[in-house]
Amino acid sequence: MLEWLMSFFVIPESSLLLTGEYSPSLMVLSISISIFASYMAFLVAGQAAQSVNRKRKAILLALGSLALGGGIWAMHFIGMLAFELCTPISYDTKTTFLSFIPGMLAAYVALRSLTRRQVRFVQVLVGGVLVGSGIGAMHYSGMAAMEMAPLLRYNLPMFSLSIVVAVSLAMLALWIKFGLKRIAMAKGFKGTRVIASVVMGCAITAMHYTGMAAARFVAPPGFESSMQDQSISYVLAGYVSFFTLVIIGVVIGVTSLFRYMDISQKAENSRRTQVALMDTAIDGIITVNSLGTILNMNKAVSRILGWDESMLIGQPFASLMEKSQEQTFDSHFFAKIQSSQQKQSSRFSKDLYALDNHSQPVPVRVGIGHTQLGEQHLFVINMSDNRERMQMEKTIRDNEARFRSFFNNIPGIAYRSLNSEGMPLVFVNNAIQEITGYTADAFTREDERINLFDLVHPDDKAAYQAARQTDSEFYVEYRLIDRNGETKWMREYGSIVDIADNEVSWVDGFIMDITSRKEMEVALRDAKNEAEEAAASRASFLANMSHEIRTPMNAIIGFSDILLDEKLTDGQHKHLTTINRSARSLLHLLNDILDSAKLDKGKLELDYRNFAISEEIDTVISTYWLDAKRKGLDLQVSVSPLLSDYYYGVPERLRQVLNNLISNAVKFTAHGEITLSVHPQENGVEFSVSDSGIGMTEEQLSRVFDAFAQADASMSRKYGGTGLGTTICKQLVELMGGDIQVSSEQGRGTNFTFRLPITPVSEQEQVTQVASIDLPPLHVLVVDDISQNVDLISLLLNRAGHSVDFAENGKLAFEKMKTGNFDVVLMDLQMPVMDGLTAAANRREWEQAKGLKQLPIIALTASVLVQDKLDAQNAGMEGFANKPIDFPTLIAEIARVLGFEYTTVAEATDATDSDPNSVIDFRRGTQLWGDKATLEREIRRFLSTASEMLTQLVQCLVVEDMEQVISHLHGMKGVSGNLGLVRVMNVAGEFERNARNDHLSAEDIPTLKAALREVENQLAQQTASTQEEALEEVDKGALKRILASLLDSAKQNQFDETIVTYCEGHYFGSYNVQVQCILQDMDDFEFERAVVRINELIEKLEETGTDYD
């Protein structure tokens, strides 16, 4: 095969080569056909590149390839016909037509590459090689179809050159199509297709004629030349040209049809797009002719004006306008717009009013544009709905007016200033004139403006500038000097505002005149100083009051305690008990005040320990049970069986809170009941005290925990008290980590509930008390400026076998300590001439100077302040004892200071100190009930209900209702304790403890019955009845006269000692209890209640006879 191919390039040296000539006309024809065919191919390729239909794109590429391939084939064949050789030449039909295929394939490759949007160099190179090779293949296959006598051989260099020329020019043509096209588009040149067609045509013809130049015609031996008729070549050239033009014509026809279809589709798409734009446009669009007649409109016109399209088509546009504007849009108006002399009128745009389908004016903005379609002049009217814009403008104007009014009426300066040196104001409201005295214009005008910084006080300018050195917000207070030279305090808030793409920085701020506030601050500082001075005076007053009030109380309580140990008549014992009780009540009020002071200062210390919670509850209930009974109140206790026996807490303060709450409940409840409920909670115990008393209003409830505050002034007059009880309760509960709430309804009662975080423990902590102290006889120096205190202490110490000397002040005491041989000194702190602290300090200095042993000194004071204890220790005192004197405690303190040993025993847990083996403690019962007859009567009343209580107790035990069992036993223990029934109280208490541990049964009840029977037996043995022990009896007439006198005194809120003393010394039979209740009310200053009870008793006396029941 290779040898056969190489034989085409071997020419024997002895061979005769034949030469020929070309017909110039046919050469020109061949070149023209190749260029025209190339142009048509590029045109079709461009149309195919823009087509989005893949099938149509393939058809166009096929047609373009047919056109270009046919052009290549026709050019080659005409070029062969143009060559005249001295021998007849014929062509093989089959080979000639097959030579068409390489040209068409080359054309397809070229056109396909032209449909790409972007082509790289490699693609241009490959496309050029394929196109050039295809042209060469077509040329040489066409020459192979020649049939002639000479042999056809080729010159190898020229053969190769023909291929290179074809490839190079094909690459150049493709580059021109892509590279030169981008350059031409940038510079607005549109001839790139022609240039590319010429280059491609040259590539085809150049390759052909270069290949013809490479051809060598070798004459065979015996060759005889003969000329062929030239007319045949022209005829064949004509046929080929016609055939080629037919093919190209078919391509043109088909492509034209496709172009028409594309243009029609684009036109339809454009129409639909315009319709869609018209229908979806927000603004109304109306088309009118030169006469102003409406031709069409979009849907927005109907939406804006409400007109239907069919109602407006053919109507003059002027009919849509208000009557005052109809003449504006007549035919002359549109004639002016279309006139070339009135070009400025074509820019018409105005805010007008159009009429809707209800003939109501609608604000619109009308813009008119002019266009011309052939000879017809059309006008496009754009109509925008102005209602929303006008509403927005109105809103903006209203907001601007509001903001301007706001800025002008706010009590301060609102401003905007430049963030530059001097801070010049750009905007400021009128309030600046009221503050500075200068108008707002004086700060914002361009010439000779006033800078706000110039008005700042010189001493504050540095702070003012420092505050403004920030990139965000700032706050500063400074002084400003106004136009009249008056200094005012200003508070300024501001923030830096940086606007994007703007080199200007602003400061927006607000300045408020705070001169009055500064004056108020000065007043508050002065008030604070005065309050601190008042607090110091209060502390000093409390210390002095503690001393001055406790000193006489020391004598009252001490001497009354001594006298109560003497043998007295019942009347004397009763009066003395009243004195002692009243003094202790006064001490309780004083303690409330002092506790409140210590709580306010946070000086109150809590003593946490284990305690029996039921004992604390019993103590409180026992204290107020009698008071409640005298008023006819039912004092109930509800203790949960789930409550532990012992807790870790502060029993004294718990008892104080319960005392205050139950005391108030008894005081403010006229009838009904009072209930104390105790229940365990997850983190402590809840206590609730409820009553059916007078209740409180919402206003009173809001002040219930305020110090020294009661419901109103009448409450203080009627019920008395300091108004500190509930305040101390709240402070104590919170100090112990709990919380307290109150609810009340006027006329229906009050409920106080508090919770304490106390934890249950296994057993009660042993609280010790002094059992016995055996001190040797001591020589004691008592130093006090109050003679009663000296007399009381001397009496107590002398009874105990000690000798006593005394001094009236610290100076005399210091001198006596130098000369006297004392074992211990009891020294008051607050005394004239020299106080106890100074005397003790001087003694310690004197002892140190003389090298003497320290003389024990015990501080003896009525003060309860912790600071006084610390001062006493700092002065060198070894001990501390409180007034009023508790003699056992004083002896224990003396023994501790002197170093004597003494024994202690566990403190009794029962509510009474009576002998546990005794049946009835008449002494304690008489102290509580006032006289023996009343006590016996109350015991009999208790015994009359005991049988029923025992029955209920047994029934509860049978059904195992331990909560009711505990409640019954607890109530029995409290009542029996108040009646002095020691044996019954102890048995009930023991049963209650057993019930809590589920160790009580019905078989244990006979023990309680036996205790009750013992009470009946001992009561029966009393030989003297209550009536026989009465000092004197009076008749009912005398009782009425006494009641009338008491009524007069009660109505005047007075207390007649003569009548009261007389009543206390007489017995009034069955009315004695009522009389005693009246006396108790008057003693408690509850005069209104006393008046009610006196009237009730007088009415009862009038209804009965004259003899005693």
Written overview of the protein:
With 1109 residues, the chain is an alpha+beta fold. The chain is 55% helix and 17% strand. The chain folds into seven domains: 14-248, no CATH class; 281-391, PAS domain (Beta-Lactamase), CATH 3.30.450; 411-513, Beta-Lactamase (2-Layer Sandwich), CATH 3.30.450; 605-747, Heat Shock Protein 90; 768-906, Rossmann fold; 922-1014, Up-down Bundle (Four Helix Bundle (Hemerythrin (Met), subunit A)); 1036-1103, no CATH class. It has a five-stranded antiparallel β-sheet with strand order 9-8-12-11-10. The chain has a five-stranded antiparallel β-sheet with strand order 14-13-17-16-15, with helices on both faces. The protein has a five-stranded mixed β-sheet with strand order 19-21-22-24-23. β30, α28 (866-874) and β31 (879-882) form a beta-alpha-beta unit. The longest helix has 51 residues, at 230-280. The termini are far apart. Residues 517-544 form a coiled coil. Its main location: membrane. Residues 779-898 form the Response regulatory domain.
